[in-house]
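Hello,

Our lab assistant flagged a job as stuck in the queue for most of the afternoon. It eventually completed. Since we weren't sure the result was trustworthy after the delay, we are filing this so someone can double-check. Below is the sequence as submitted and the structure that was eventually returned. Let us know if re-running is recommended.
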Amino acid sequence: HTAQSSSEFRSQLSDSGLGCTDVVKVDGENAASVLLWDVRGATPVVEYSDAHSDIVTNVCFSPKQPKYLCSGSLDGLVCITDTTVSDVDEALESVLNAESSVSQSGFFGPESEYAY
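-- returned structure --
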């Protein structure tokens, strides 16, 4: 395959969430997996495939603690993942069951310590 600049590669990915370093891209669109990409490369560096059982509808990084990623899914779960850990079983910090499809999730509170 052809080498691409990070901005060209970034434009080809779904616009789901971008890490605060502009090097990590999160893709959760159209899959039950959350993929972390290094935008300088063409393949994901980490795949969290067991956290959700249906399409991931949104992802976002914590604004105060950017190692934490919040993902919501049609399976009704909101998952908080520590992105410094590659194993999904160990990376999963918290799971909230909304008992309904999740269209929006994120962090709130003075230190972004709560999830919705």
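-- support follow-up --
The delay was a queue issue, not a problem with the job. The result is valid. Residues 76 and 101 are 4 Å apart (CA to CA). The helical segments are 6-12, 88-91.
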